[in-house]
Write a structure and sequence with these properties.
It contains no helices and 14 strands. It is mainly β. Strands 5, 6, 7, 8, 9, 10, 11, 12, 13 and 14 form a 10-stranded antiparallel beta sheet that branches. Strands 1-2 form a two-stranded antiparallel sheet. Strands 3-4 form a two-stranded antiparallel ribbon. The chain is globular. The relative contact order is 0.20.
Length: 182
C-alpha cells in the first residue's frame, strides 16, 4: 500500500498501487485515480480449443499445451500454445476459437474496434483444412476467434471442418500471443 499526500486538502490518502501523479511537473500533475497503477499479476492458464457455438464433445491436449499471462492495470498480455492428441468433434458447430483466457475483454458502447484486439499466431500446423494465421480477441468475452489468410474471401473464420478430429498425436497446433484491455 502506498501512502501519498493529496495536494489540494493535505489529507493522507491510502491507495493500493503506485501513484504516478506526483512524478508529473505542473500543470500536468494531478490526483486522478487513473494515475494509480492498481494491479500487477502474473500467472498461468490452460488454453482450450473451443467454438463460439456448440463445443467439441471432447478434446485431449498434449502435455505442452499451456499459457502464461501478465496483467498490468487493465492491460493483459497472454501467450501460449495448444496442441491436441485427440478431438471428438461430435455435433460441434460455429467458428473455432481459443478459449480459457484468464480475464474477460472489455466491452464498451464505443465502436467495436475498441472492444477487440489482434492476436498473433505462429507455427500453426496439423489442421485438416485451413491452418489459422491470425486471431482476434473478441470484446466482452474470453475467446480468441481464429482466422486463415485468404484475402479474396470475406468470411475466413476457421471452421469446425478445419480441425483434425480423431486420435492423432500433435495435431491442431497453434502458438499465440496478444495483448488486450479488460
Amino acid at each position: 500500500t502506498a501512502v501519498y499526500m493529496a495536494q489540494d486538502s493535505g489529507a493522507t490518502v491510502h491507495c493500493a498501487g503506485i501513484n504516478f501523479s506526483a512524478t508529473q511537473p505542473a500543470p500536468d500533475s494531478g490526483t486522478s485515480t487513473s494515475e494509480v497503477l492498481d494491479g500487477y499479476e502474473e500467472g498461468i492458464f490452460t488454453p482450450t480449443l473451443t467454438t463460439n457455438s456448440t463445443d467439441f464433445t471432447s478434446v485431449t491436449y498434449d502435455a505442452e499445451t499451456s499459457g502464461r499471462y501478465t496483467k498490468v492495470g487493465n492491460i493483459v498480455h497472454v501467450q501460449g500454445v495448444i496442441i491436441t492428441d485427440a478431438v471428438s468433434i461430435g455435433s460441434a458447430s460455429g467458428d473455432v476459437c481459443i478459449g480459457g483466457l484468464p480475464f474477460t475483454a472489455i466491452t464498451s458502447s464505443a465502436p467495436t474496434a475498441r472492444n477487440h484486439a489482434t492476436v498473433s499466431l505462429s507455427l500453426a500446423n496439423g489442421w485438416s483444412g485451413e491452418n489459422p494465421s491470425h486471431g482476434l480477441m473478441i470484446g466482452g468475452g474470453t475467446l480468441i476467434q481464429l482466422y486463415y489468410a485468404d484475402y479474396n474471401v470475406d468470411a475466413n473464420n476457421i471452421a469446425v471442418s478445419d480441425v483434425t478430429g480423431g486420435t492423432f498425436a500433435n495435431k491442431n497446433q497453434v502458438y499465440f500471443a496478444g495483448t488486450y484491455t479488460v
